[in-house]
Structure prediction request, 314 residues.
Amino acid sequence: MAVSVTDTITAAQYNGVQSRINTILGAGSGANGYGQAMASGQVVVGNTITAAQFDALRTDLNKANNHQSGANAGVGDIAAGQVIGADTSGAATTEGFNDYDTATSTIETNRYNIDGGNATVEAGITAARTTTWNGTISHIFTVGFTDANARRYFFNSGGEIRFSAALSGQSGAKSNDWSTMLSNMGTITMNYTSTSASGTGTDTVIGNDELTGTYQTIFTRTGSGVYAENDYNIAARYEGTGGKTLRFRIQFRDDDAGDQQAVTDTGTDGVGSAGPAVDESVNGNLSSTIQQLRATGVNVQVATPAYTNATALA
Prediction:
């Protein structure tokens, strides 16, 4: 909470700001918390707040702001002996208590942001198939965290699970449509509260925070033309103690029942007639690729989960 000129800055006010940054950078709860060790702590009510305590608070603000934007928070270094004002300390205009309060508000607003220099895209797991298929095949895998808090920290700090798929070396109209469909959807990303594609498809506002113990469809991409019945879809749920494990089910559903093929009429009218419906199998090299984006910077680093295939395109 901001203070006014001539106000005395109390331990309670310092503790209020420290508690707010601890909610974001520290353990927090629910949708808040990166799970990092804190430099600052609470001040005993009635005690004088020291320069060292403000330095510790500034360290935590800088860590969180650097993680989010790649730059320090807009607060100066308070020296021993300075009188800390509402908006200035001595001649410095970035060392007032309100600067700390404002910097904390910015960090709260940007709590899910992650600067590109503080994250790493890493391999998760893959599945591949080279035999022809028809009907539905699935890639089912789990993402196992050490506990529910580790799962929270991963997504709260800007972590993502990323999905992509490809079909190459194929031939025939149906297989070509599958190849185009998978290519055009691009990379699908699930973050803390949504799932979206870099290409085309049906996004959702379902992310880690919205998952339950029952599968929910988080993304769908359909085929085109006479193959519009076909689709690629991702469903997700949690399982295990406290929901520490995520389970994803990717389905490649070849629901096209077959289409009639034109045949040349050998009669005298010269009009072509339609033959029986033909339901082609899908051929080519099919792959399903999972990656993750994880906070790995010097300011915030979270543990990587373990990926395990349950069904690999079967």
